[in-house]
Amino acid sequence: MIIKSDFKPAWWLTGPNLQTSFASFFRKRKIPEGYWKRLELADGDFIDLYISGKQDDDEKEVKTDTTPLVVLLHGLEGSINSPYSLGVMSQFMKMGWGAIQMHFRGCSGAPNRNARAYHSGETEDFTYVLNWLTERYPSRPVAAVGFSLGGSVLLNYLGKVKSETRLVAGVAVSVPLQLDIASQRINQGFSRAYQKHLLSTLRIKIAEKESLLKQLNLSKEDVMQIADFYEFDDKITAPLHDFKDADDYYTKSSARQYLKHIARPTLIIHATDDPFMTKAVIPEENELSASVTLELSDYGGHVGFIGGKNPLEPEYYLDKRIPEYLQKYF
């Protein structure tokens, strides 16, 4: 089902780029009360979680707890410090829910140990976290929210597992549903500014791993000269994760192809003016399963969706819309 969004952009934030960038510069960032948990993986690497609330001490109470729980999946190079994560986590806590920010490998502030990292279609680490949650909190209803790349991971996962999942529902925001189109779009016009910013952190991470450079047969200079996402995915993402090349990675990891297989209630929130992609990524209604609702807005940019009449009191639509949707399934 495709529906029109109720979101109305702030008059003082016209255009997709202002919507996209405002929160990064001006939203107050206060990390909610919580604690860190490191999960060790079978391949020798680790995943860091930031869990809302106080650390669990009583094992018995944990096993019988029925409080709703939401797992957050951040975007490319995001973390608990990302304004969108802080916003929705705070809202969940106000509602009495628990929230967990899953950090993809290398995104918690500590470099991961292995060569491989994460990408738009990588679902194994997310599956591991859900399995850990099943053991730790067997009685709690669990949902997931993914932003941008994290939304791609979530939709890939839901489409692959169908009904065989612990999740009761999911929300995906500003997802690059077709990676080849997104890769081309972000290399055009002002969108190249976003690409430049994201690539700068990715290049540094790769350049600091000498063993990884040897594996890829690249020098630090080679990495630092990578100019766009396609080149990065072709030289680094693809070989690290067993894809033939960037095109193979984009074909196999684009979430659009999995939407018709999703069996859990899922809301996709998308702005047609998203500067990270074009309207060509938007699926037709016959590409969606009966469980998927695609909410389209003419405005909102990339993970923006900021309204409000007063510039001193911005209203963050996602902070309201996401809990509103998930509440129906808790």
Task: Outline the structure in words.
The protein has 2 domains: 2-177 and 256-329, 3-Layer(aba) Sandwich (Rossmann fold), CATH 3.40.50.1820; 179-253, no CATH class. The relative contact order is 0.19. A hairpin with a 7-residue loop joins strand 10 and strand 11. The two termini are 22 Å apart. 37% of the residues lie in helices and 17% in strands. With 330 residues, it is an alpha/beta fold. The protein contains 12 helices and 11 strands. The strands form 2 sheets. The protein has a 9-stranded mixed beta sheet, sandwiched between helices.
List keywords for this structure.
two-stranded antiparallel ribbon; alpha/beta; globular; Rossmann fold; 9-stranded mixed sheet; 330 residues; single chain
> Helix/strand/pairing class, anyone?
alpha/beta
Question: What is the gyration radius calculated from CA atoms?
Answer: 19 Å
Strand percentage, roughly? 15-25%
Domain count, please report it: 2
Regions with pLDDT < 50 over 5+ consecutive residues? none
User: How many strand units?
Assistant: 11
Q: By CATH's scheme, which homologous superfamily of the largest domain applies?
A: Alpha/Beta hydrolase fold, catalytic domain
Biggest sheet: strand arrangement = 1-9-8-7-6-4-5-3-2
User: What kind of oligomer do you see?
Assistant: single chain
